[in-house]
Amino acid sequence: MIERKRATGGSPHALQQLPRLFTPLLLVLLVLLAPFFAAPVAAQSNEKSLSTGEDTPVVADTSISQLKASIESVKQRRETLSRNYEKLADDYESLKSHLDALHDDVPPELGELLRHRRDRLTEIISDNQFNPSLNREITQARLTLLELEDMTGPVQVEEKANEPSEAVIKQKIALVEEQIKELEALRKVFNEATAKSQQYLELLDEHLFWLPNVEPFSWDTFTELADAWVWLLKKVSTTRLIDPNTLSFTEKAKAIGGTVIVILLFSLRRRWKRVLKVLAPRIGNVGNDNFGLTLRALLATLGLSLSWALLVAALSIVINDDTAFTKALSLGTRQAAYVIFLLSLLSNICRPNGLGEVHFRWRPETLKAVRIGVPLLLVVLVPATVLTALAESAVAENYRGSLGRIAFIMASIQLAYFAHIVLRTKRKATDQHPPPKWIKVVHPAAVTLPILILALSLAGYHYSALTLEGTLFISVCWILLVVLVYYIALRAVAVNERRMTLARLRAERAAAKAQDESREAAENAGEGVPESLDIPQMDLDDISDQAHALLGMFALFAAVIGLWMLWSNVFPAFNALEDITLWTVAAVDGNPDNATVITMQGVAFALGIAFATFFAARNLPGMLEVAFLSRIEMSPGTGYAITTICRYIIVMVGVTVALGLLGAEWSKLQWLVAALGVGLGFGLQEIVANFISGIMILFERPIRVGDTVTVGDQTGTVSRIRIRATTITGWDRKEQIIPNKTFVTEQLTNWTLSDPITRVIVKVGVAYASDIDQVQQILEEVVLANERVINDPPPAVFCVSFNSSNIQFEVRAFVKSMMDILPLTHELHSSTHQALNAAGVAIAYPQLDMHVRSIPEDLKGLTGPKVDGNKDNDSDGNATTKDNRKDEDV
Question: What is the pTM of this model?
Answer without folding.
Answer: 0.63
